[in-house]
Amino acid sequence: MPLLALAFLAFIGLGLPDPMPGSLWPSLRPHYEVPNAALGLVLAAVAVGYVAAGMLTARMIAAVGIGGVLVGSLAATTLAAGGQAFAPPWAGFVALAVLAGFGGGAVDSAMNLFAASRFKPGHMNWLHGFWGVGATLGPATAAALLAAGFGWQAGYAAVALALGALTLCFLATRKRWEDGTPRPPASRANPLAVLRNPVARLQVLVFFLYTGLEAGAGQWVATIMTGARGATPAEGAVAATLFFAALTGGRLALGFVVDRIGADRVLRLLTPVALLAMVAFALGVADLVALAVCALALAPIFPTVMARTPARVGPGDAAQAVGLQVAAATIGVAVIPAALGLGADLAGGPWVVPWLLVGLGVALTAMIWRLPVRR
Prior knowledge:
By secondary structure, the protein is mainly α. It folds into two domains: 3-183, Growth Hormone, Chain: A, CATH 1.20.1250; 193-370, MFS general substrate transporter like domains (Growth Hormone, Chain: A, Up-down Bundle), CATH 1.20.1250.20.
């Protein structure tokens, strides 16, 4: 199987388990007899594992190579999902969530490094589009199994089976992943050393802001529509679905043109478009159209900046830089949507959230324009 096709499958696999805790929570929570707030503990456990993996992936690649990291981390995610399918005690379930996050974070970092080193920015956009496919298939599979009369455990079992098959595919192709992918010397697998590079620091901030903005918009749009725009809950859910569908569709579509236009040119053209769409949404001008345009313009930022990392920071620091970017992205997803919620509470309603998103958009646009361009 071509490595690009297997990489597409890997990103689908990355997306599969991410929505499972939330999708299965209505059935999972009564089983463990825990409060709704306990979902936050599960998500925090996954985030802790993800951040740790991002910080350590460069060292693991230096020790066992990118092929070894991919096989081992996919095996870890398989073990985590399989263990959760057996409905262990609550403490064990949370511990397995940390393992799932660590395995997912290591796969994410290693695959992004491989793709940035071997593929074009257009391919990277497709890869991240396929993550959205996996994130859609996960809840759909869980819903089908629940509708068929299976318990929540079946959802995790299905994910474990899919990830187990993917692990075997990567085990069979392990050596091929090493070809042409730089293995960083152990002396360069140092986060502090990489962060002395101002471009690396700027890219880490870009990923923190971008993923926080993406997650914040996606998580809060339904509340904004219902709490500040008079929409029904169903209409709010449609707005959230539209945002994520446009984000995934944008990555798949822009993958065909980003290499022709130029990666840096695409970033500089589309970030101001996203900002203008955020302003339109904040003003209440054509809400759904503005939301869709915003998502389409944001779509290439994560994969395209990631694709340019080796060229900007150098092949020797690329593995550690990519890991730091994945860690920063995870922290952004955890921190910024919560901060937006705090802002809404202080302001007395969700009406303020779109304007906070505009502020984030201004900062993100300024940072994108400060990134060095290809000469």
